[in-house]
Design brief:
Strand order of the largest sheet: 1-2
CATH architecture: Up-down Bundle
Order of helices and strands: HHHHHEEHH
Helix content: 55-70%
Number of domains: 1
CATH class: Mainly Alpha
CATH topology: Four Helix Bundle (Hemerythrin (Met), subunit A)
Distance between the termini: 10 Å
Largest sheet: 2 strands, antiparallel
Shape: globular
């Protein structure tokens, strides 16, 4: 059984997918400055998971290389194609899931070493950061969808009692 923090990340992911269900290619490519496009947001979240759980945690850098350009937080805004964005996101999330599944309470207290230096945050804090990052961009994506005239959009957190109920560690 996965650690409860992993359950919370997976729930945030499922809510993100629910938030963006039914978005068209055209709307995913639309950018309403200063916000980014929906396609960028998908790639941006995939890029963080790739960086944290594949590159930094496991030294795996060859998964979804398009994310080096699409949705990268240090690159200029862009509008990745929706199908490519979701494909990259799915590739990354499937690749990181075995690592996340294996996390234990003890491992969550460890610090990843990046460029020879331990990260300031431990793995548990990084896992929380990933989860909260999804919620931040989930709100942004809902706002973008509302500005694009989409109705209805998800109004509240979904089936948390079924998908990620509270349970002790």
């Amino acid at each position: 059984m996965a650690h409860p923090l992993v359950d919370q990340l997976r729930f945030a992911r499922s809510e993100f997918r629910r938030c963006l269900a039914g978005v068209s290619d055209e709307d995913a490519d639309t950018r309403l400055p200063p916000m980014n496009s929906l396609g960028w947001i998908i790639c941006h979240l995939a890029g963080q998971e790739r960086r944290f759980w594949l590159i930094w945690a496991q030294g795996i850098g060859d998964v979804a290389p398009e994310l080096n350009e699409w949705g990268h937080f240090e690159k200029p805004a862009n509008t990745p194609p929706l199908e490519g964005a979701w494909a990259a996101w799915q590739t990354v999330t499937h690749a990181v899931d075995p690592y996340l599944e294996a996390l234990t309470q003890e491992r969550l207290l460890e610090h990843l070493v990046v460029d020879g230096e331990p990260m300031e945050s431990n793995i548990g804090t990084m896992l929380r950061r990933s989860t909260y990052h999804y919620w931040f961009h989930n709100g942004e994506a809902n706002a973008i969808r509302q500005l694009l005239g989409h109705a209805p959009v998800p109004e509240f957190v979904g089936e948390i009692a079924k998908e990620a109920p509270y349970r002790p560690e």
